[in-house]
Amino acid sequence: QVKLVESGGGLVQAGGSLRLSCAASGRSFSSSAMGWFHQAPGKERRFVAAISWSGGSTYYADSAKGRFTISRDNAKNTVYLQMNSLKPEDTAVYYCAARRAYGAPSYYSNEYDYWGQGTQVTVSS
After folding, report:
1. What does the DSSP assignment read for 46-89?
2. Torsion of CA 70, 11, 89, 92, to 10 degrees
3. What is the pLDDT of residues 88-116, one digit of tens each?
4. Predicted local distance difference test score (pLDDT) of residue 18
5. What distance in Å separates the CA atoms of residue 108 and residue 82, rounded to the nearest whole number?
């Protein structure tokens, strides 16, 4: 079992930066692929970024490439999403997700087994 708690969301002007954190509890974190998704009002949950259990492989949505960076610190049981050059269209609730041990990173939300409660990111123009 893995419990996930996101933090770091907030209100920022366009062009600004935020760093989201996802703190995980549970023994399998260091062997779990992790992902970030976002969901805007009235829209479906969409993939943002993912990272392998070792941190050696990362994957990004086209909208996030060049602006966002996913990373993890297995010693701290934490995964991060550094978001730079934020745009109003990045406004959404951001969710952290984990796959069961040794699963590969995935672009698909239904392949993740554990979810956090989400953190709101609002980018003003």
Report:
1. EEEEEE-TTS--EEE-TTTTTTEEEEEETTTTEEEEEE-S--GG
2. 70
3. 999 999 999 999 888 899 999 999 999 99
4. 98
5. 21
